Amino acid sequence: MIPTELAERYNRLLGNTACSQLIIVAGATHETGWEEAWKVWRGLEFAGCK
Question: What's the pTM value of the predicted model, to 2 decimals?
């Protein structure tokens, strides 16, 4: 989990962001809540990305 502003800047610098997705998890911080969110998101595949 990183600050939204940092993630948005990183995506802009990537250029082609077809395989990058920013997901904002309400209530999660760098220290709490992210573990539960990661359990949900870690195994998902993004369309067109491998």
Answer: 0.51
